Amino acid sequence: MNLRDLEYIIAVARRSNFSVAAEDCNVSQPALSNQIKKLEKELGIELFLRLSGEVRPTACGRQVVKIAQDLLGSAQQIRDTAAQYQDPEAVPFSIGLTPTLAPYLTKYFSELFRTLFPRMRVTMIEDLPHNMLQMVEDHELDVALVAQLNHSPALDFTSIWEEPLFLAIRNGHPLQTLQSITPEEVPVHDFIRLPHPFGYELEARLPMPGPASRAAKRFDLTALRFETICRHICHSDDCTIVSALAAEQFRQDNWPLSFIPFEAPGNLRNLGAVSRLKCPRKPLLQKIGAYILDNPPKGVTPTFGA
């Protein structure tokens, strides 16, 4: 039995599928299956029930998976402890950003890391909040930038900045004269939104557009990418929500869009860095927070250390 075996059984338990688990572990499906069979033979008991189209842990398997998770966590703590005594810049750093943040922060964070840690290799990964939180727990990310509303209580949350929300409309839109807007005033028949939340409390009060509400549209749009929606809004009467960071970037790029601020309450999101409870990279996070406090991206209010 070795740590790799433990990674295999955890992956199978999480995915309920040998093939998908093998992809997660970067091995072939036969290699993973054979190794688990060897482990079961060594232990003298089955860890998984092989059902039609599904794999489930046995009662013993569930206990073994829990112990394996604890053991792998301890092994990672050993690696993390060793990392604390290395040159911080010699250890690569990975940071996750959501699709509504990454396009507007790549340049900013590139400059930040080049200033603070010029010799460090940094990887920025774009993904959805729930995927990134799991990646932080699985030690695949050092830090993920998410809204406090979306973060997991099993992880540390360090507040970095607050950011207001706007309604984006094309220049010349009938709503452009408004100084501010409430979620209830957003026209349901013209509203398009992404399937995942941005992390603002007021999103729960926004209209939920559906086929019936948009049935009168001669040209309709369903999109997975935020920028696709915003480009569509440039030449239509539709509208969507945008963060301050995105609004500032669109202004700089001279997009023909106007932005109406939402009224309180719930119009601000607390954005922060999520990390593991005993992550040894916390000193780096302190330096990053201090840099943001002194040099915040345009449109946000720093909250680090507040």
Automatic annotation (TrEMBL):
GO molecular function: DNA binding; DNA-binding transcription factor activity
Annotated ranges, domain HTH lysR-type: 1-58
Gene3D superfamilies noted in UniProt: Periplasmic binding protein-like II (3.40.190.10), Winged helix-like DNA-binding domain superfamily/Winged helix DNA-binding domain (1.10.10.10)
KW DNA-binding (keyword) present: yes
Domain of life: Bacteria
GO cellular component: protein-DNA complex
UniProtKB keywords: Activator, DNA-binding, Transcription, Transcription regulation
UniProt keyword annotation of Hydrolase present: no
Pfam family, one: HTH_1
Stated family: Belongs to the LysR transcriptional regulatory family.
Protein name, entry field: Hydrogen peroxide-inducible genes activator
Species whose genome carries this gene: Falsiruegeria litorea R37
Gene expressing this chain: oxyR_7
